Amino acid sequence: MDTRTGGGPGEPPKGGGTGQATGGGGGLLRSGAIMAVGTLASRVTGFLRTAVIVAALGTGMLANAYNTANTVPNQIYDLLLGGILVSVIVPLLVRAKERDREYGERYEQRVFTLAVIGLAVLTVVAVLCAPLFIDILAGSFTGDQRDVAILFARFFLPQLFFYGVGAFAGAILNTRGSFGAPMWAPVLNNIVVIAIGGAFLAITAGPVTPSDITDGQMMLLSLGTTGGIVLQTVALWPSLRRVGFRWRPRLDFQRGEIGEVLRLGAWTLVYVVATQAAFAVVTALANRAGNLAVDEGIGEGYGYTPYFNAYQLFQLPYAIVGVSVITALLPRMSRFAAEGKTADLRAAFSTGLRLSSVIIMPAAALMLVLGPEITTVLFAHGNTSADDALVIARVMQMFAIALVPFSIYQLMLRVFYAHRDTRTPALIGMVTVTTNIIMAFTAYSVLDVRWIVVGIAGGFAITNVVGTLTCWLVLRRKLGGIDGRRIVGGHLKLAVAIWPLIGFAYATHTVADAVGDTSTLVPALITLVVGSAGGGILYLVFAKLLRVDEVQTAISTFARKLPGR
């Protein structure tokens, strides 16, 4: 955890200067680096967690039931609270503290109390509605697979309460300039799930199906998965106390406070409902593709689980860099918007975007070229075959195409939220949601069953390109320009610097594939290490030759935050 006493993005600027924000990436990236180191630890252990669960459950019908049920609390949270928290609550907390410190603390107490009560009620209702959620997301599930998925969902849905409480606690920490704990807490969750996945592997012999899973095995997976989320949330409380937050239940909202939350949250709810509708369509079609492959005798491993695991890999670079920068940036941009400092807000946005792309662009290139090696190393173990891992790789390669536009799109949305404008993202979201649904149905309708989930991921990439272009045009008009020349110029330089990386990684992949079997662990690992390291060095060399300043800024700042520095 990091508690800043001056100059942190969650605090008011001192001395009226704007250098903190506009002085380039140093201050912003220091905040981002703190989170990125924690996020890196979280995602590395998350990789291990995913690998263990895939090894334990495979990519077939039981895995589809488990993963579908485990996404239900996430999606309900995102539907009703996640978007509102990011787009509404954080800016309102910042503005409340700007108005008056004591008022800001009272406002925190009121919002937190309302959240706890609402989450408790919502969780009870959600558990009762578990069969409905499974039927929406996996209408193709029948018999034992449906029964197992519903039982998983009943045990997983209490996570909803802890997700919400943890997210509100993280928001309070962020607005007080403390960014580390929310990024490190998921490590505890990952360790718990790794342990239960390992235990499941130890007590089973070979693949387990929905028809033969025992009650004890169900309890191990269910209670262990939810227990990890509980521990992740509880771990934030010492940090809350350290920054001076003491929860005192109170609901004495002043006139207009709830109305402001509802007014701003209404458009966010429209946006999130639309995006979750698209998610429901994608999940249902992916599950249907998996069951169709089984019915046609093609085999398991072509359904929602490959899509889910590929998406987890796709999220890694964005989570380490993009989320870290965005989390540090949102309180800062909210403050600039409240003070009418459009130039400072524009500069902060431009800096954050260019710094994020320094890592995200080469990461996308490596995922695209070395996708099979990545998934072989991570997933081709236990009850998951090399062919199953290759399906995940194909889906991930489609997601890799989406990585850069997805990251840009997410950051641009935060500029609107900083202005307390939730209407514009909702309207843009309708465009992207419509595109996503059309692309998903098209993939399901025209592609061979083996390629449906790959095509759905490709549709996701097209959707994010559409969203980015639309958001860019609207945001440029809103801000009177978004530093487009520097942003485009910087990205063009990065694109040039990436080509040597792509060439080296592809050459490594081609040579290794010619002389050995890269579908096995050791050759795949060697190819991945050599291709990534050699390509990465070439990328840094060419970035330096092209004078991409953000690369050096990112390297030096993140290096100072590594343990032992």
Automatic annotation (TrEMBL):
GO terms for cellular component: plasma membrane. It is found in: Cell membrane. Pathway: Cell wall biogenesis; peptidoglycan biosynthesis. The chain crosses the membrane at residues 40-63, 75-94, 114-134, 154-175, 187-206, 218-240, 261-286, 310-330, 351-371, 391-413, 425-445, 451-475, 487-508, 520-542. GO terms for molecular function: lipid-linked peptidoglycan transporter activity. GO terms for biological process: cell wall organization; lipid translocation; peptidoglycan biosynthetic process; regulation of cell shape. Keywords: Cell membrane, Cell shape, Cell wall biogenesis/degradation, Membrane, Peptidoglycan synthesis, Transmembrane, Transmembrane helix, Transport. It is a multi-pass membrane protein. InterPro entries: Lipid_II_flippase_MurJ/MviN, MurJ. Residues 1-22 are annotated as: Disordered. CDD domains: MATE_MurJ_like (cd13123). Its main location: membrane. Involved in peptidoglycan biosynthesis. Transports lipid-linked peptidoglycan precursors from the inner to the outer leaflet of the cytoplasmic membrane. PANTHER family: LIPID II FLIPPASE MURJ. Belongs to the MurJ/MviN family. This is Probable lipid II flippase MurJ. It comes from Actinomadura livida.
